[in-house]
Amino acid sequence: xxxxxxxxxxxxxxxxxxxxxxxxxxxxxxxxxxxxxxxxxxxxxxxxxxxxxxxxxxxxxxxxxxxxxxxxxxxxxxxxxxxxxxxxxxxxxxxxxxxxxxxxxxxxxxxxxxxxxxxxxxxxxxxxxxxxxxxxxxxxxxxxxxxxxxxxxxxxxxxxxxxxxxxxxxxxxxxxxxxxxxxxxxxxxxxxxxxxxxxxxxxxxxxxxxxxxxxxxxxxxxxxxxxxxxxxxxxxxxxxxxxxxxxxxxxxxxxx
Length: 256
Ligand code: MF3
Ligand code: CO
Ligand code: CO
Fold this sequence. Notes:
By secondary structure, the protein is of the alpha+beta class. The chain is built from 4 helices and 17 strands. The longest helix has 21 residues, at 10-30. It is globular, with a radius of gyration of 17 Å. The two termini are 33 Å apart.
């Protein structure tokens, strides 16, 4: 933070596209491993090995000054909103949901993306939360138009999420991302149309709505990272890194 909003060149956006594609391919690689009986540590170790094999580095590992993040990916199960730490005791069971958030660094640039996966067959209302959350991400992306405002994004997400009876997490927001993991602008997933900074071509940032079944309030666990819902109801999340082009948003974190 503190450098203001940087506009990336065509050449830098090409590097973001490459890092973003790799991030998405990493999630594709992990997808068949997400099954009842797997531990979140096994997912972490598979992700770390794959990342190294592809000439990249895991940005989360060691991230943060006073309390460095200890693992390579974030694995947020059920009531965990974000930044769940992979652990061998965290074994997935039928009916769970898990968000896997990956950020490989390739040639200095970050690809930041996450998806929420269904483990086995969750209840229909759980699947509904996940579907609504995914749609929130795409509504947010559509609202990210050149000459619009950052508030347009949160407004689109919040309107839809709340109309479906869910709440939008306030304590964690999308962010500028480039050769720096987290930078300006901040991108709230709630807000007011027409408010906030102007969206301009060359801006690259994430949209990563966290949508809760109950209250939007979060609580931080004693590890200093794991954020859970205050009421321990479920939370889902999807994330893409997007670049603003003169023609609209382009998703960096797509695989074929
Ligand atoms: N990938 C997360 C995000 O979307 C950040 C994780 S920071 C970590 O911004 F240190 F917890 F990995
Ligand atoms: Co992010
Ligand atoms: Co992320």
